[in-house]
Amino acid sequence: MITNKEIADMLSQTANLLEIKGENPFKVRAYRNAAKLIENSSKDFEKLVKEGFDLTKLPGIGNDLSTYIKEIVTTGKFSKLEELKKEIPEGLIDMLSIEGLGPKRIKQIYDAFGVTSLDELKKYAENGELDKLPGFGPTLIQKILKGIKQLKKAGIRFLWADVEDMAEDLREYLSKFPGVEIVEIAGSYRRRKETVGDLDILVVAEDYMKVSEYFVKYPRVKEIHSAGLTRSTVFLDNDLQIDLRAVSRESYGAALHYFTGSKAHNIEIRKIAIDKDMKVNEYGVYKNDKKIAGKTEEEVYEAVGLCYMEPELRENRGEIEACLNHSLPNLVNLEDIKGDLNISVDLIDEAIKLGYKYVGVNAKIKRDDIKVYKILEVDVNKLEINEDYDFLVGIVNENATSENILKAIKKVDFLRFFRDIQAKKELNIDFETIFEEMKKENVALEVISKPNNLISEVLIKSAISKGVKISIVSGAKTKKELNFIKYGVNQSRRGWAENKDVINVSDNPF
DNA sequence: GCCGTTTTCGGCCCGACTGTTTTCAGTCG
To answer: What is the pLDDT of residues A83-107, one digit of tens each?
Structure first.
């Protein structure tokens, strides 16, 4: 039994080791791309291999990687990785998370001194040995020492919902500067990803040098990492990284597109441009060194022969193909939501204020001004029902067995799946099969909107593609939490949900 | 390591910033 995550981890560990070894960077990228593909797939790779599925059909997987994946699935081990581990000390991988140290410099340090651990590295940085290497000056060495201390902070991501207020406060702060025309927060924040690693803020201003100066004076800035003419990076008091990019009005669309990402989406767009003898960068689209687009995002997409794609779709998960076959989804909007099928009973009046036509609560109540459904939640492992209900929600917890889930599908109206984003806890079950059964039995997927418990957009997309309907609910216990439903809508949009897929966009959900 | 309707070899997205240089490599996003 091996999970997608475990396969992906082995491939990405291999990528790290190959990188330190000084292998061709494109080879390293091939391993990383494969790891990402597998980790983000709703398909169970162990099952695919056992069914004899041709892995080379997947984008970025060729003969070699296909063989490696099969080896990992059947033996639980990856001989190539084992070999590399013997060859390269493990401590070198930790060094990759040090700011300013990449594979080249790590290799340089290792070759010169045989340093294999962070402690040793610290010693060599402090005793002046590291200075002897070409390219290692005093500033870089200070940076390395600092990097060793801050190692643990690397890679932390914030929940989208937790940065929302900060992002809006920064937007307001920057908007106050005279001469600023546009402030937009790009990056994964604009793509509404469940977690964000940093904030990429784009500013159009008359004098961008002064904007940067103003930006770094934002009261919550703890540390200025870099400050250039067009790019600056700072850290806030809570360690959130903020990147500011100042651009001209003429390049705004190209810059917004570029900095919204995702990286994988951008790379695809650039490849398409290259095929048409064009070049795309953050300043515009160029043909024969002549700028042909860049003012708006729509213009950029049009210039390379594509349609506008909503930021939530830009993950290189088929949106480009969908655009080319004219099958891009028309995504659900928050305003389309007509009711919330999971709220506390004392929030009914608030729900009416929001304009909802119906709600689901944990009690039998009759109201003239709003339709109230009684929901009953049951753990799929203990499917005992002794109460009346209008609809039944099966809860799939961490310890739920596939057998119990499949049994529950025969009885329930909705299924809700456990997930804890910050604790990195995911269910390891065969979602593909479960979604197929759900479609057969007309069971809908409940998308609960709590920021830390959102179901992955990959699963939403997979469910929808199998014809499973979704119900976006807040799960609100307080008035404030009623607004959480927007997070569920965001995630559903990332899962390509259209109005036809969402139960609670209609006036009558049943 | 992947990929391909001009290619089975020779490309692979592209630019800013930093620190070290004396013109550029490494890192990062």
So the answer is: 998 888 888 888 888 888 888 888 8
Q: Cα(A396)–Cα(A403) distance, rounded to whole angstroms? A: 12
The radius of gyration computed from the CA coordinates of chain A, to the nearest angstrom, equals: 25
Q: Percent of chain A, pLDDT > 70?
A: 98
Among candidates A452, A448, A429, which has minimal Cα distance to A489? Answer: A448
Which nucleotide is closest, CA of A31 to its C1'?
Answer: B1
Give, in Å, how far the C1' of B20 lies from the CA of A493. 47
Output the distance from A235 CA to B7 C1' rounded to whole Å. Answer: 47
Q: Mind listing the domains of chain A with CATH numbers?
A: 4-153 (1.10.150.110), 158-247 (3.30.460.10), 251-324 (3.30.210.10), 334-505 (3.20.20.140)
State pTM to two decimals.
0.85
Q: Beta-carbon neighbour count of residue A353 at 10 Å? A: 10
Bridge partners of A244, per DSSP, are A201, A232
Q: Backbone phi, then psi, for A394, in 5-degree steps?
A: -90, 130
Residue with tokens 């002046």: A128
